[in-house]
Design a protein that fits this description.
Length: 153
């Protein structure tokens, strides 16, 4: 009897747990005009990049990505649809400070050169805030690189 009662109570707890979790409310940080939610900007993003060049300077190492040549005409886009702008679309340089992180700078040079020689694309991870740029990295077209992955496919 006691074992049956215990098994019934534990079954009810398992059934009630998902229902309780579904009753949670979602809180939006702030709602702007027209009821549109404004979320904080991402501090780190990533992008696929075809390497145009790799540079090493006294204060930084950088990877320059080839500009995308895709067109929004045809394909999946119809009529007058224009896709939303890509964040940091004008940014083509991604740099690491040579003195602030020399180990990462060395690994970036090695990996970027290898990917470039094999004609492979890379996935670049970078900080979105231009205030975090390493020396010599212009706010208009450069961001601090935090990671690099060679795409094998």
């Amino acid at each position: 009897m006691r074992g049956t009662l215990l098994s019934i109570l534990s079954a009810l707890a398992l059934i009630a747990a998902p229902a309780w979790a579904q009753e949670e409310t979602v809180r939006i940080p702030s709602v702007g005009p027209g009821g549109v939610a404004t979320l904080p900007a991402a501090t780190e993003l990533s992008r696929t990049c075809g390497i145009a060049d790799v540079g090493a300077f006294t204060n930084r190492v950088h990877v320059r990505c080839a500009r995308a040549t895709g067109s929004a005409l045809g394909g999946l886009y119809t009529r007058d649809y224009v896709p939303p702008p890509e964040p940091d679309a004008g940014v083509i340089y991604f740099a690491v400070g040579a003195t602030s992180d020399p180990a990462l700078a060395d690994r970036v040079i090695a990996l970027a050169n290898s990917a470039s020689q094999q004609n492979k694309q890379v996935q670049i991870f970078y900080r979105t805030n231009p205030a975090e740029n390493p020396p010599g990295c212009q706010p208009s077209d450069c961001r601090r690189l935090t990671g690099l992955v060679t795409i094998i496919q």
